[in-house]
Write a structure and sequence with these properties.
The protein is about 0% helix and about 40% strand. By secondary structure, it is mainly β. The two termini are about 75 Å apart. Pfam families: GBD_T9SS_assoc, P_proprotein, Por_Secre_tail.
Length: about 600
């Protein structure tokens, strides 16, 4: 029970927030806890002299959940939930604006639920209380309330039964600007509760229209950007609807002469004036169906799939109104095709992606003239080829050797997923193809499918060997690359062999071109007193350092954690570092020659 007003002490019958039936059958002996919550501005205090008494339930329970609805300028319907089985109640209606206050004395007794309060004054503030009259020895309950309201009268078309006529603009007027504005924020419009199949409705009004055309063009506008529902006036069955913020939506589904109710609604929770355009629309004559499919032919088998793609081509209708567009239906279950939407023009061809091998597909082309669609159009079919074997470079061991600069075509549509699965700049994406590139010196490597692939690509680059690949980096979506294609530049790479895997996001496959570019770092100046070379990199056992003119004074090796793992002072032109027992990974080697120190990166396999 919530106590929202009054002065302590508070006495009376109070109900818990949850039903006490939870405790049915529980022994009442023991310790009980009574919680009090103050929700007003965080006030604190002490609750004294309280007690819980276990006793039979009152013989007359108070009603709950009082509510009310304004019906006219002078009437309001008041209702509540019975506390028990009672059928009669007493009410006290208080005119707050008129200076009234609650007295505990009914203004009307022995009333039914709901109760019609009459003789009210428009614009005044009211509240009411209600108690149960259980009759005889059971007496009456305590009062429930107050429920407060203002006697503001909603417009007459606030509910479907009060729908008032509306006249849409003549066809051809256009909906560049709204033709109707409803003052929802000031005319006391309420939420009727009527809900169509589009956006959640809030405040709404209803209009009647006897259809003069078989369609309506609807556009919502500021303020409010409302939605619309069209109902059959006799059955209040929904015919069509449009969401809020709709633009030039064509509504249909009725016949000329049919009586309709049009609901204009604001989005649930919004209190705003609303504006909209409503214009008559006549559907043009529907075109004839498309004629014989060109490719693939109806019933064709072994249809070639390239990069998971097949191109559909058909013949336009040879008679009837010229189509303005074509709607495509496609799928692998006859009679249950997916609506792919319009082609977007009068082209009689479309590319379909995500095509599998050894699968029979069904498709249907429905010509469109404005909002009118052809009917009875045939369904065609074709069966794709058996999957060809994976490409030769399906795994690292058979990687295609490439040079730089170069551009190499690839196709992952029949590839399998091979190689590492751990994140390497980006997670490998599924079916992949492999390339091998050998850098003859240290430098920067750029690997790219940017704007040059039919699908959402991923690139991963590794060093090491196919049996022990070491991540160098990866990319999913390259900066400035369209179609979610990829581009990656790795700087400061050492001379050696690198493996490149090209895959697709979320298992996507397709065709494309892989472009490589490599730029050498400034090579060692062999005439410099501090120049040196090192090899091999990656290294399995021994790393060799070789100076050009001066002895190597000091060599210090660190792991990726910055821990020193080796130090030697060769004082010679060459030095061999035994890395046989070191863990696989990347190491940094600081080489000092003639008081000058350089750091190199090596990979231990």
């Amino acid at each position: 029970t919530s106590i929202v007003d009054g002065t302590a002490p508070f006495t009376g019958q109070f109900r818990p927030e949850e039903p006490l039936s939870t405790f049915n059958g529980v022994d009442a002996d023991g310790t009980w806890t009574l919680n009090f919550c103050d929700s007003a501005n965080g006030d604190t205090g002490t609750f004294n002299s309280w007690a819980i008494t276990f006793a039979p339930a009152p013989s007359c329970l108070a009603p709950t959940a009082p509510t009310g609805t304004v019906l006219t300028a002078t009437t309001a319907e008041l209702s509540w939930t019975a506390g028990g089985t009672e059928t009669l109640w007493d009410v006290e209606v208080v005119d707050i604006t008129g200076g009234g206050s609650a007295t505990g004395t009914p203004t009307d007794s022995g009333v039914s639920n709901p109760y019609m309060a009459m003789g009210l004054t428009e614009g005044n503030d009211y509240e009411y209380y209600v108690r149960a009259d259980c009759g005889g020895a059971n007496g009456v309950s305590g009062w429930t309330g107050p429920f407060a309201w203002t006697q503001n009268v909603p417009p007459p078309n606030d509910f479907p039964a009060g729908a008032i006529p509306i006249t849409p603009s003549p066809e051809g007027t256009g909906c560049a600007s709204p033709t109707f504005t409803l003052p929802f924020s000031t005319d006391f419009t309420t939420d009727s509760g009527a809900q169509g199949g589009c956006s959640d409705s809030g405040l709404d009004q209803f209009f009647s229209w006897t259809a003069t055309t078989d369609g309506l063009t609807f556009s919502s506008a500021a303020p409010g950007n409302p939605g619309i529902v069209v109902w059959d006036a006799n059955t209040l069955t929904e015919i069509d609807c449009a969401n809020t913020f709709a633009t030039d939506v064509i509504l249909s589904g009725w016949t000329i002469g049919q009586d309709l109710v049009i609901q204009i609604y604001d989005f649930d929770g919004s209190v705003s004036d609303v504006a909209f355009c409503l214009e008559e629309y006549t559907f043009p004559t529907a075109p004839n169906c498309a004629e014989t499919p060109i490719s693939p032919a109806d019933g064709a088998v072994d249809v070639v799939v390239t990069g998971g793609l097949v191109t559909l081509t058909w013949t336009a209708p040879s008679s009837g109104p010229a189509p303005t567009d074509y709607v495509i239906f496609f799928g692998d279950t006859s009679g249950a095709l997916n609506d792919l939407g319009p082609v977007g023009g009068i082209d009689t061809t479309i590319d379909i992606t995500g095509i599998d091998f050894s699968t029979t597909y069904f498709w249907q082309v429905v010509p469109q003239n404005g909002a009118s669609l052809a009917t009875g159009c045939p369904e065609w079919s074709f069966t794709t080829e058996v999957a060809p074997p994976p490409p030769a470079n399906d795994d690292c061991a058979n990687a295609t050797v490439v040079s730089a600069p170069s551009t190499t075509a690839f196709d992952t549509s029949t590839a399998t997923a091979t190689g590492p699965t751990a994140n390497c700049g980006t997670l490998p994406g599924g079916p992949n193809v492999w390339f091998e590139y050998t850098a003859t010196g240290a430098g920067d490597l750029t690997v790219s499918t940017c704007d040059d692939a039919s699908f959402d690509t991923k690139i991963n680059v590794y060093s090491g060997t196919c049996g022990a690949l070491v991540c160098e980096g990866g990319n999913d979506d390259g900066t400035g690359c369209g179609g979610f294609t990829s581009e990656l530049t790795l700087t400061g790479l050492a001379a050696g062999t690198y493996y490149i895997a090209v895959s697709g996001f979320s298992g996507a496959t397709g065709t494309g071109n892989l472009t490589l570019d490599f730029s050498l770092s400034d090579g060692p100046d062999l005439d410099s007193p501090t120049s040196f070379t090192y090899y091999p990199n990656p290294v399995e056992n021994t790393l060799t350092l070789s100076a050009a003119l001066n002895n190597i004074d000091d060599v210090v090796m660190f792991n990726m954690l910055g821990q020193q793992v080796m130090r030697v002072q060769p004082n010679a032109l060459s030095s061999e570092l035994d890395m046989t027992n070191m863990q696989t990974g990347t190491y940094f080697v600081k080489v000092t020659i003639a008081d000058t120190t350089q750091t190199i990166r090596v990979v231990k396999q």
